[in-house]
Amino acid sequence: MREPSQIGDRMKRNYEDITRQFLPRRTYTIIRVDGKAFHTWTRGLTEPFDEMFMSDMNQVAIEMCRQLQGCRLAFLQSDEISFLLTDFERLETDAWFGGELRKLCSISASMAGSLLTQENPHRPPAFFDGRAFTIPSRTEVMNYFVYRQQDASRNSVQMVAQHYYSQKELNGRNTDQMQEMIHQKGDNWNDYPVACRRGRLILPTTRPSTIDYMDGRTDEKKTTTVDLTRWVPVEPTIFTKDRQQLQELIPPLPDDGPEAYSPGNSHPMTCVILEGMSEAAKEDCTLHAHEGA
Ligand SMILES: Nc1nc2c(ncn2[C@@H]2O[C@H](COP(=O)(O)OP(=O)(O)OP(=O)(O)O)[C@@H](O)[C@H]2O)c(=O)[nH]1
Ligand SMILES: [Mg+2]
């Protein structure tokens, strides 16, 4: 009889590992998760925009920003979230799961699914697909977010139009025509909140926080101040008109020279406060809204 290790090695070598793929190192990685058949999963939610659902998606994105190693920001709209990850800060910086493609896709999709299900225990389980890929230039990373934001606005107009008209009435209509049709119903797409029209960014912010701890040597209770990172939802600019917000958020590749990348709070921020947000998250938003003012 063969040793279990021999059969195991053979299975791995001949089958499992043969399709193992890794993303290139020291560049930009995008991971995007998208709700599976959310047209059905969202049935019964407020149309065209459900604040609780948007808030839940923000929470999913915030928790994932915490968990995804090297995450710089997330951009979300409708039932999808894109994360930007980098792995080039130092030569020794690791990539999340070494950049193993199937790990990146499957773990991020399952995270999103279980986090959203946890937020909605009375709804059916939520499933997501996940994809991960490399974009090798900073400008193209900016263009990627322009692409997702344009999709956000197109989706958003469509969702409002579908609220007033049947699919048949909307067939063949472009976004401008749909906006006009919305107008005819006495509504104006431009009056909807930015978060509904342009998507949301999730950004890291740091603020000093006081913590109590026990000094192991003296057994004394002590207090110290540390910088805590919190992730908060922020209103995006219109990326095609104002690229500065994005530019400041995306670190240049190490070979790009000393560009003006300043992590932290240098970008102006208008936070997104939604119904259902935790008190701590609201407090963060209020704090940072003042910083951005
Ligand atoms: N009522 C409501 N529905 C929403 C909201 N946000 C997203 N949705 C729904 O989620 C859908 C997401 O669209 P898609 O991702 O293109 O479609 P899908 O049904 O998820 O299909 P696949 O992604 O291909 O599996 C929209 O068409 C809406 O039906 C919301 O705020 N309120
Ligand atoms: Mg979907």
Q: What is the CATH homology-level superfamily?
A: tRNA(His) guanylyltransferase (Thg1)
**Going across the major beta sheet, what is the strand order?**
4-1-3-2-5-6
Number of helices: 10
Oligomer: single chain
Q: Which shape, going by the Cα principal axes? A: globular
> What's the CATH class, please?
Alpha Beta
Count of extended strands: 6
Per the CATH scheme, the topology name is: Alpha-Beta Plaits
The overall pLDDT, averaged over residues, is 89
Beta percentage is: 15-25%
Query: How are helices and strands ordered from N to C?
Result: HEHHEEHEHHHHEEHH
Domain module tally = 1
Which structural class do you get from the secondary structure elements?
A: alpha+beta
Provide the gyration radius in Å: 22 Å
Level-2 CATH architecture? 2-Layer Sandwich
- Main sheet summary: 6 strands, antiparallel
Helix proportion: 40-55%
| Spatial separation of the terminal alpha carbons | 73 Å
Which ions, cofactors or small ligands are bound in this entry? Answer: guanosine-5'-triphosphate, magnesium ion
- pLDDT under 50 segments (min length 5)? 258-262, 288-293
Summarize the helices and strands and which ones pair or pack:
Blueprint: H1 4-16, E1 28-35, H2 38-41, H3 51-67, E2 71-77, E3 80-86, H4 101-119, E4 128-135, H5 138-164, H6 167-170, H7 175-184, H8 194-198, E5 200-214, E6 221-234, H9 244-249, H10 279-292
Antiparallel strand pairs: 1-3, 1-4, 2-3, 2-5, 5-6
Describe the structure.
The chain is of the alpha+beta class. The chain has one domain: tRNA(His) guanylyltransferase (Thg1) (Alpha-Beta Plaits). It is built from 10 helices and 6 strands, in the order H-E-H-H-E-E-H-E-H-H-H-H-E-E-H-H. It has helices at residues 4-16, 38-41, 51-67, 101-119, 138-164, 167-170, 175-184, 194-198, 244-249, 279-292; strands at residues 28-35, 71-77, 80-86, 128-135, 200-214, 221-234. The protein has a 6-stranded antiparallel sheet, with helices on both faces. A hairpin with a 2-residue loop joins strand 2 and strand 3 (80-86). The relative contact order is 0.14. The protein binds guanosine-5'-triphosphate (GTP) and magnesium ion.
